[in-house]
# Entry
Amino acid sequence: MHTPLISYLVLVIKLQRQIILVLLAQLAEIFDHSRLPRADKPVFKRFNQFQVDEKLPLLQADIGPEKLDYQQLLAEALEKNGKPILPVRRRKPVSFETQACPRCQAPQDYLYANNGAGGQLKCKVCQFKFQDGYAEKNKTVALRCPYCQNRLSIHNRRTKFDVWCCYNDKCSFRLGTIASMSPAEVADFNVHPTAHKVRYTWRTYNFELKGIAPESPIQAPVDLSRIQASPEVLGLVLTYHINYGLSARRTAAIMYDIHGVKISHQTIHNYEMAVAAVVRPFWANYPYKLSDQIVGDETYVRVKGKWNYIFYFYDAKCKLILADYVTPNRTTESAVIAINQVLQKMPKIPENFNFVVDANPIYQVAQIYFAQQGIKFGIHQVVGLENKDEISREYRFLKQTIERLNRSYKENYRSSTGFGSATGSASYTALYSAAYNFLRPHEALRYRVPVELPQLRPFERMPDKWLALIELAQSQLPTAA
# Structure
């Protein structure tokens, strides 16, 4: 009975297999003759890499265009062409900010808008192009290329800076850059000229450091003197949350499960921000004794579901965090703010002072920005993961120390899976930096803390040390008048 049934099922399976093979062959035929888009192989496209030109532009007096007389030009045009240059025929009356051409003094009747509402004017008499309001603004200084002395022109206007470029095709910088290209790069440059940086460029910045102070950027949501919890609870919360890297929810759970104290995770966040508002000015303004091994780096941190950055600067020998700027943008301004946090901790910048950083060019631009302010320091860039140059070989060990700091920080905050606000990230980072400098023993220092505060020596328990640090920081705050 079973044998005929099994034979029948085998025949059915074989028939189905033949049908499937026929259908697969037809699908392959259809695909080969279809007009569906094919998946192309990845194509490498060269982009113009961000590079920094080290030479400063020349600041020279802007003597303006060569002065001409519009009446003489009108007479010469009449004599040459046999007809006069007529004023601009306008469809409707207009009034420009500039009263006359800055080159030949032709009145407004001979001026017309050269690019519509863009603000550029052109004189019909001498053909001079200029921006409306040129004469009244009376520009006295011009940026010039340090290689060919050609006047730099605006290339791009960004939110925080302007990009200037030398458009002289015979500039020695441009000709030298092209001459140093390989034959393959020259061929690609002829096809895609914008993919290669061959012109001298410069950036002028529209932000100032006077609003960037080391004082606390954190506004405390609660007053520490009015919290309902006891000081012992506050010390325990900070120990679990900062020293041991427990999230606010886990800290709340352990406070209830172990100590019988019922406290919400939001209250813990409020305490965190209140303590950070007190401790950060003390941490930022403390008179540290620094070495000559200062290294900087940026690392990722999650804030409101998006990647932000922490710009760390670190004394690799003394094991001190000197800057911990949290920002959503990895820009030159962020690097400038972080470096400024370090410089403010120095009564005087030593000679031949250097920062060790990675290959990110924003540090070079920040160096040039400070040079414009009269602040000089050097930059040693450790490139990549392998020591392919002498600088990387010499300073690789310093770069590894700050990478270790980045890992330590991430181990602490990983349990929280990120921060819910920018204020929360800044508060936690400030408290972590304070604990790192004043409370945490370091193996490389024979298990001593980087900065031993006399006011903390009588205390053995970490919660008591936190409370003593808060009291010390509060005593250093300026009293309201």
Residues 2-32 form the longest helix (31 residues).
